[in-house]
Amino acid sequence: MKRGLVDLLRGEWKVSIRRACSTLRVDRALYVYKSRRGTQAELKHRIKEICETRVRYGYRRVHVLLWRDGWAVNPKRVYRFYKELGLQLRNKVPKRRVKAKLREDRRPATHSNQTWAMDFVHDQRRRGARSVS
Fold first, then answer.
1. Number of folded domains in the chain?
2. Contact of 112 with 97, CB cutoff 8 Å
3. Which residue from 12, 15, 93, 103 puts its CA 20 to 30 A from 119's CA?
4. 110, exposed or middle or buried, with CB in 10 Å at 0-12, 13-18, 19+?
């Protein structure tokens, strides 16, 4: 956005980059900046390859494999690319326990003392209590 304004000012008023930037109160370094990092396409491709062969690996394990391959890459960057490529793992759905299934199959009690249950949540041993003889 700022670059477009500086170009517009330079085109209409025929002024230098320095004069246009100072008039708009924009640092000249922002106008002339060119990124040297690139698109990181090779790294993204390698992350995708790893995730295709090892489906259950998360970004942390992928980072370790990249590090072993010689990629000097930050785990936060691996996480960002992992999300951009849509490789986020789904949360595991916990399996129902067998005991819960057995509980559902029980028939309701038809008369007294047919069904008994115990609750161990509140079963506590009192400390310091002395028995009276």
1. 2
2. no
3. 93
4. exposed
**Cβ-contact 31, 2 below 8 angstroms:** yes
Q: Are 62 and 78 in contact (CB under 8 A)?
A: yes
In which domain, by residue range, is 16 found? 2-32
B/e letters for 1-13, b = 16+ CB within 10 Å, e = fewer, are eeeeebeebbeee
CB atoms within 10 A of CB 132: 4
pTM of the model: 0.47
Any residues with CB less than 8 A from the CB of 44 and at least 6 apart, and which? 81, 84, 85
- Structural domain includes residue 21: yes
- Asked whether the beta carbons of 43 and 81 are under 8 A apart, the reply is yes
